[in-house]
C-alpha cells in the first residue's frame, strides 16, 4: 500500500513539475513574441495607413521602400497589416522555416464575392481537407511524371501548331503578336490535358475574348482594391473588381459547364464499355469522384478547379515566353547564342522535342534569367499568418498579409551581380534552380503552397521558346531598334508586358 501511495505521490509530483515547466515555457515564448518589435516601415497616415505608397506597380514601390526599411518591412493598408519580405534569407524564413504558420491565404473582396474562397485550391487554407484533396489530385492526376510523360506528345503537337501558325505570318512578312500566339498555345495545352479539346484558335479573333477573360480574372484578383483594406466598403465595389470578376467567371463557368455536361452525356452512353484508362483526361477522373454516396466532389467544385487551373496556368506560361523573347530581342547576341546551341543539338531534325531540352543548358539559363527578371507572380500569391510568429527577430502578427517580393529579390545588387542586365551566363554551370530550394530564385514560391503546375511549366516554357528560336530568326517591326524595345510592366496577379510584344519571324528552314 505504501509503495502504491509513494508511486502515486511521485507521479503527481512529476505531473506538477511538467505542467509548471510547460506553463513557464509557453508564457515565456508568448511574452518573447510580445516583446518582438514590428518590422520597420514607413510612417502611416491616419485611416489609410500606407495605401498612398502602393502605386500602379506595388512590387516596384515595395522594392524602393525596402531599400530604406530593410528586408522585412511592415506596412498598413487601411485595416490590413502587411509584412513584405525582400531578401533570400527572409523569403526562406517565410517559405520554409515558418511555412506552416504562414501558408493561409488572404482572399480578396472579389474572390469572396463569387464564393470562390470556399472551394478553391488557391484560396483554401492548407488545414482544409478539401485543399489537401485538390492538391493530391493535381499532383497525382495532372503533374506526376507518369501523367506528364503521357501528355508529352500532346504538348509537342500543340507547339508544332504554334510554329505553323507563325510560319504563315512569316510568309506574309507580318509581325506576330507573341503574347496572343503563345497564350493560345498554353491555353490549348491545358484545355487538352483537362478535357481533350482546343479552346483556342489562331485564326479567329473571337478567341482573343478568352484571353481577355483570363487576364480580366487575374487583374480583378491582383489589382489593389479599397475593400481589401476596408472590408466594410466591399459592397460599393469602388474599383469594379467584383463586377469584372463576376462577369469573367460566369463566362468561364459557362464554357466549362458545356464541356462537363457533354462528358457526362458521353459517359452515360458508354456506361458498359468504359474508355481506355490511358486515354482518360483530368475531367474524366474528376467526374468519377462525383459518383456514389460518398462523392468527394460535385460539378460546381470541378468548375472552380478548372477556373483555378486556367487562371493560374495559361497566362503565366505565355507571358514568361513573351518576356524571354522580349529580352532576347533586346539582346541579339544572346539570341544568337541560344539559337546556335539549339541548332547544334537539333541540327536538321526539323522539330524540337521535350527530350532535347535537357541538352540545351544555355536555353535553360535563358529561362531562369527570365524568371529572375520577370517572375510571373512578382509578390507570389499573398499569404496570411495563422498565428503570431517571430521572423528574423520581428513580429508578424496573426492575420497579417505576407508578401514575398521575388521581383525585388531578383534585382537585388547584393544578391546578383549587374542585376538589371539580362545575362543567362550567370546560371551556366551553377546548381541554382527554380524548384523552391534556392531562395534567391523562387518564381513558383516554395513550401507547401509551391505552385503545383511547376512540373508542367518547366516543360512547356522551354519547349515553346526553343521551338520559336529554332524555326525562325526574329526582328522588331517598323524599324524599332532593339535597345528601344519598351519593357514596361503591368501588375495584376500576373506580371504582363504593358504593350504586347510584336515581332517579325523569318523562316530559317522547312518545317517538318
Ligand atoms: C511560368 C509558369 C508559372 C508560374 C511562374 C507560377 C507561379 C506560381 C506562384 C508564385 C504561385 C504561388 C506560390 C506560393 O504561394 O508560394 C502559384 C500557385 C499556383 N499555381 Fe502556378 N505558376 C505557373 C504555372 C502554373 C500552371 C501551368 C498551373 C496549372 C495548370 C499552375 C497552377 C497553380 C495553382 C493551382 C496554384 C495555387 C496553389 C495553392 O495555393 O495551393 N501554375 N503559381
From TrEMBL:
Which keywords does this chain's UniProt record carry? Heme, Iron, Membrane, Metal-binding, Monooxygenase, Oxidoreductase, Transmembrane, Transmembrane helix
GO MF entry, a single one: monooxygenase activity
Q: Which residues cross the membrane?
A: 7-26
Q: Which Pfam families match?
A: p450
Question: Where heme is bound, by residue?
Answer: 451
Q: Which cofactor(s) are needed, names only?
A: heme
Q: Which domain of life is it from?
A: Eukaryota
The record's listing under SUPFAM superfamilies reads: Cytochrome P450 (SSF48264)
| Family, similarity comment | Belongs to the cytochrome P450 family.
What's the protein name? CYP76C2
Instruction: State the organism named in the record.
Output: Arabidopsis lyrata subsp. lyrata
Amino acid at each position: 500500500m505504501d509503495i502504491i501511495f509513494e508511486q502515486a505521490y511521485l507521479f503527481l509530483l512529476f505531473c506538477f513539475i511538467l505542467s509548471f515547466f510547460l506553463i513557464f515555457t509557453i508564457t515565456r515564448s508568448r511574452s518573447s513574441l510580445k516583446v518582438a518589435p514590428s518590422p520597420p516601415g514607413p510612417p502611416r497616415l491616419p485611416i489609410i495607413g500606407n495605401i498612398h505608397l502602393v502605386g500602379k506597380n506595388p512590387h516596384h514601390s515595395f522594392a524602393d521602400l525596402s531599400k530604406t526599411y530593410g528586408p522585412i518591412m511592415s506596412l498598413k493598408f487601411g485595416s490590413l497589416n502587411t509584412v513584405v519580405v525582400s531578401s533570400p534569407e527572409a523569403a526562406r524564413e517565410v517559405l520554409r522555416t515558418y511555412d506552416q504558420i504562414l501558408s493561409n491565404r488572404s482572399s480578396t473582396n472579389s474572390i469572396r464575392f463569387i464564393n470562390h474562397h470556399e472551394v478553391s485550391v488557391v484560396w483554401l487554407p492548407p488545414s482544409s481537407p478539401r485543399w489537401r484533396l485538390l492538391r493530391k489530385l493535381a499532383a497525382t492526376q495532372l503533374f506526376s511524371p507518369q501523367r506528364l510523360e503521357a501528355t508529352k506528345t500532346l504538348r509537342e503537337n500543340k507547339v508544332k501548331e504554334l510554329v505553323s501558325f507563325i510560319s504563315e505570318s512569316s510568309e506574309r512578312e507580318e509581325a506576330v503578336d507573341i503574347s496572343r500566339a503563345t497564350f493560345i498555345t498554353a491555353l490549348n495545352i491545358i484545355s487538352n490535358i483537362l478535357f481533350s479539346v482546343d479552346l483556342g484558335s489562331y485564326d479567329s479573333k473571337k478567341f482573343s475574348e478568352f484571353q481577355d477573360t483570363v487576364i480580366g480574372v487575374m487583374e480583378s484578383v491582383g489589382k489593389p482594391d479599397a475593400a481589401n483594406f476596408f472590408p466594410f466598403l466591399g459592397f460599393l465595389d469602388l474599383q469594379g473588381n467584383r463586377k469584372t470578376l463576376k462577369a469573367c467567371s460566369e463566362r468561364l463557368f459557362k464554357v466549362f459547364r458545356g464541356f462537363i455536361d457533354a462528358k457526362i452525356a458521353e459517359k452515360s452512353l458508354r456506361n458498359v464499355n468504359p474508355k481506355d484508362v490511358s486515354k482518360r483526361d483530368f475531367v474524366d477522373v474528376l467526374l468519377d469522384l462525383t459518383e456514389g454516396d460518398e462523392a468527394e466532389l460535385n460539378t460546381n467544385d470541378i468548375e472552380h478547379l478548372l477556373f483555378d487551373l486556367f487562371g493560374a496556368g495559361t497566362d503565366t506560361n505565355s507571358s514568361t515566353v513573351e518576356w524571354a523573347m522580349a529580352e532576347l530581342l533586346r539582346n541579339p547576341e544572346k539570341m544568337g547564342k541560344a539559337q546556335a546551341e539549339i541548332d547544334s543539338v537539333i541540327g536538321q531534325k526539323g522539330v524540337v522535342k521535350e527530350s532535347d531540352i535537357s541538352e540545351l543548358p544555355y536555353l535553360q539559363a535563358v529561362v531562369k534569367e527570365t524568371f529572375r527578371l520577370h517572375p510571373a507572380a512578382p509578390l507570389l500569391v499573398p499569404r496570411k499568418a495563422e498565428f503570431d510568429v517571430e521572423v528574423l527577430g520581428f513580429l508578424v502578427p496573426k492575420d497579417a498579409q505576407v508578401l514575398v517580393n521575388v521581383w525585388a529579390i531578383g534585382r537585388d545588387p547584393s544578391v546578383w551581380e549587374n542585376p538589371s542586365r539580362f545575362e543567362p551566363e550567370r546560371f551556366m554551370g551553377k546548381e541554382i534552380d527554380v524548384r523552391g530550394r534556392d531562395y534567391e530564385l523562387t518564381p513558383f514560391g516554395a513550401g507547401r503552397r509551391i505552385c503545383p503546375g511547376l512540373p508542367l511549366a518547366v516543360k512547356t516554357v522551354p519547349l515553346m521558346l526553343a521551338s520559336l528560336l529554332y524555326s525562325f530568326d526574329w526582328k522588331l517591326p517598323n524599324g524599332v531598334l532593339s535597345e528601344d524595345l519598351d519593357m514596361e510592366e503591368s501588375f495584376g496577379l500576373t506580371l504582363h508586358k504593358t504593350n504586347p510584344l510584336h515581332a517579325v519571324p523569318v523562316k530559317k528552314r522547312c518545317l517538318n
